Predict the structure.
Amino acid sequence: EEQLLESGGGLVQPGGSLRLSCAASGFSISNFVMNWVRQAPGRGLEWVSLISANGGTTYYADSVKGRFTVSRDNARNTVFLQMNSLRAEDTAMYHCVKQMNNCFDFWGRGTLVTVSS
Amino acid sequence: QSVLTQPRSVSGSPGQSVTISCTGTRNDVGGYKYVSWYQQHPGKVPKVMIYDVSKRPSGVPDRFSGSKSGNTASLTISGLQAEDEADYYCCSGAGNSWVFGGGTRLTVL
């Protein structure tokens, strides 16, 4: 059974940093583009970042560009999101998402990031 | 990146059909065939219902259909059922990024 398990969320002060992890099981991430999508409490979905299957290409939403860095370790079947200079508006549930057929095919349950003083 | 425009809410009675629109620009919906639709029940993760404008993943009922005309994509749900009550989000490729719509709350009366 496919699973994506995010971890690393928590409460952080504005300006702080967090590193999210997404551990996959039941399939090999090495064949897939992986994404991070976030959802603020009571709000809609927002795409955050994408990393190609081999990790050689990354893209970011304008709202996080220059502050967030996505990476992956295919040998460990894990994707990461390094988040620096965090702002209150980054408060959200962060989902790791497998991309297939040009859509977001499988979602993890997410890890909650709260940015507050 | 811009947010695609969806109606905030739609409603229909069981057995009826409803259509949810998703309006973008030529830089996203109008320029790409990578439009997808997601259903999200409260407290659950989104589930893809339509991809590549009009394709249905395995297991999605054929009551769900998608289309696109110009810069506007549409999701039609026919034969409404109580379990269709949920939030629906459209999504489009936009060059080196993805953009979502603001979401539509579907109420089954």
